[in-house]
Amino acid sequence: MTLKNREKYKRIKLAQNPSTPLDILRELAKDSHQDVRYEVGRNPSTPVDALRELARDEDIDVIRTVAENSNVDEVLYELAKTNVEYITYGLVQNNNSSSKVLITILKYEKSLNNPSPFIISETYYHQNCPDFLKSIIETLFKEML
Fold first, then answer.
1. Residue 71: pLDDT band with limits 50, 70, 90
2. 59, 31 Cβ separation under 8 angstroms
């Protein structure tokens, strides 16, 4: 392993560790290597300001880790408005997605000619899906449940 790779490996290990100090996670969120940023996005201890930065990353896999992170709230709502299916998959699978996020997702899916059965179903069965939203899904997308 080269010195450069060893250094990258150390940063990945730091990014994965929930005990890494928040200021270090903030710095790692700006790392030049996608693998490091990816692990920062997955870390449940990553502060919200760093997750907001990662939500605007150039790499879609990094953005999806933010969508799946358990430490976000308003960041999820911002991601829901991106209407990127790969990211939406992460949002509907995140137990912390709020009803506001789920409503935003359904509004977009409703506008499509071919909404995703997976996204519709995951939204419907999500623990934070409000009853009125379930009724709408049952009316519009019954065949997808």
1. confident
2. no
**Distance in angstroms (rounded) separating the CA atoms of residues 30 and 145:** 41
Name the least confident of 2-6, 8-12, 73-77, 109-113: 2-6
Which tens digits make up the pLDDT trace of 77-101? 999 999 999 999 999 999 999 999 9
Q: What is the DSSP letter of 112?
A: S
Q: Report the greatest alpha carbon distance in the chain.
A: 59
| pLDDT value for 1 | 55
- Which residues lie closer than 8 Å to 2 by C-beta, 6 or more apart? none
Report how far residue 113's alpha carbon sits from residue 93's, in angstroms, rounded to the nearest whole number. 23
Domain range summary for the chain, segments of one domain joined by + = 1-72, 73-145
Length reported for the chain: 145
